[in-house]
Amino acid sequence: MHLHILGICGTFMGSLALLARDLGHQVTGSDLNVYPPMSTQLENAGITLMQGYDASHLQPAPDLVIVGNAMKRGIDAIEYMLNAGLPYISGPQFLADYVLQGKHVLGVAGTHGKTTTTTMLAWILDQAGLAPGFLIGGVPQGFKESARLGAGQYFVVEADEYDSAFFDKRSKFVHYHPKTAILNNLEFDHADIFDDLAAIQKQFHHLVRTIPSEGRIIAPITESHIDEVLQMGCWTPVVRTALQSDHSAHLCSTLLADDGSHFTVHQQQDCLGEVQWNMTGQHNVANALAAISAAEHVGVRVEDACRALSQFGGIKRRMELLDTIHGIEVYDDFAHHPTAIATTLDGARKRLPQQRLWAVIEPRSNTMRMGAHKAGLADAARLADDVIWYQPEGLDWDLSPVIEASSNRAAVFQSLEQIIHHLKTHAQTGDAIVIMSNGSFGGLHQKLIQALKAKI
Fold first, then answer.
1. Binding annotation for ATP
2. What pLDDT digit, counting tens, does each position of 203-254 carry?
């Protein structure tokens, strides 16, 4: 079958394209934003990519069009698809119908940490010899690709609360019917489609309604917004995790290093395993506890899960060290929300306590662009010594109040050239620069690296 994917370079749709290819389908795709690492991964997989959304991309007609949730009415390809009566489906529905049937699905949901936790869980199951299938909304370091069908009965999926398509406004995760579900955390996000936190909680409750009574729900003991979801009705055993010792938690951790790079995992008073890895931040310790508990549900011993995580390579764009130039470290991070910014910088500060820490932030997510989180941005970035905010053309609000509210050195620039000039002028040997965006940031990462290399 010839499948054409509209919005193929999105993290979810790109991973779906790989699964469709592995099912034996001919896969092509279109996108406005064709950039690495996803474009490279798809091209290496032999998938033909087309720039833009021209109607001609659907000629001759594919057997099925898979429509990404970024697609809207009025786009040429969408209007042609509808007028020509081409068969179409949402990405989550395709995944549910063609991949997940008959599988034990392990779903990872939450406002933060979905991609990282999904990758951890897939890695643990893989190291345990269970040959899981998986779909990860990013590019993992430990696997060659972000999705695979797998050879066993288990499939690990990043379960996103964003809507499925312009014709299906349900959250993606409602389609997946997981038997094991991680509900990592819950905050207000996606202001472009949700009016308030309660609207997101309603979708999470729809997810809970699909989890069988013989399944398992894993949730941190401190997440009151998750508790409110479960209080709406829950028919599945709930297992709790905690960063500190708590008698009501199934699994707890004890930090052996402040930056989260070394910790033990406990059940009541019994130490069941130890993790020493390259990841940092207490948020990643929390992610690890959830992944370990989910793996335990399908028979992986906690000790074995901890041993696997000690060899975990992480994923791209999560505090990924891109290069070190003249002693200046340049990192890439996918921060898309004030909490994500704060937790990333907390881990970076503890990992690099003596280094001058720069945060270069693009408020690119739909929620950030709308200004829904602007009141918390200055505080979110407070652990950096210097903060550079990017005010791109079209941002719906002025960043000046964020600068005024900052307790550290903060500046706002309107162009990448200004940012690069400022960093090239002021960054010094021993500094660490963390570039934070959920997009390509106009190629700033490599442009900055080249500018620093050219500095005499």
1. 110-116
2. 999 999 999 999 999 999 988 899 999 999 999 999 999 988 888 899 999 9
Domain boundaries along the sequence of the chain: 2-90, 100-309, 320-454
Beta-strand relationship, 251-255 and 88-90: unpaired
Residues shown for the chain: 456
Give the Cα-Cα-Cα angle 242, 271, 347 (nearest 5 degrees).
Answer: 45
- Tens of pLDDT, residues 48-89: 999 999 999 999 999 999 999 999 999 999 999 999 999 999
Torsion of the alpha carbons at 391, 397, 401 and 407, rounded to the nearest 10: -50
Strand partners, 433: 330, 358
Phi then psi dihedrals of residue 85, to 5 deg: 70, 30
Backbone angles phi, psi at 437, to 5 degrees: -165, 150
Contact 350, 377 (CB under 8 A): no
How far apart CA 296 and CA 422 sit, in angstroms, is 49
Output the CA torsion sign for 28, 31, 35, 37. negative
Reported pTM: 0.77
Of 331, 352, 349, nearest in space to 436 by CA: 331
Residue 38: which H helix or E strand, with range?
A: helix 38-44
CB 452 within 8 A of CB 433: no
CATH match of 2-90 with 3.50.50.60:
no
| 61 DSSP assignment | P
Q: Are 99 and 133 in contact (CB under 8 A)?
A: yes
- Residue ranges of alpha helices (H) inside 85-223 are 91-98, 114-127, 197-209
Which positions ≥6 away from 321 have C-beta within 8 Å? 329, 330, 331
- Give the span between the Cα atoms of 257 and 21, in whole angstroms: 43
* Distances in whole angstroms, Cα of residue 275 to Cα of each of 252, 319, 345: 13, 19, 21
To the question of domain 320-454 being in CATH 3.40.50.720, the answer is no
Strand partners, 284: none
The CA distance from 421 to 402, in Å, is 22
CATH code reported for the domain at 100-309: 3.40.1190.10
Best CA proximity match to 261, nearest among 273, 274, 276, 271 = 276
Question: Of all helices (H) and strands (E), which one includes residue 437?
Answer: none
**Binding site membership: which residues?**
110-116
1: number of CA atoms within 13 Å, CB side?
14
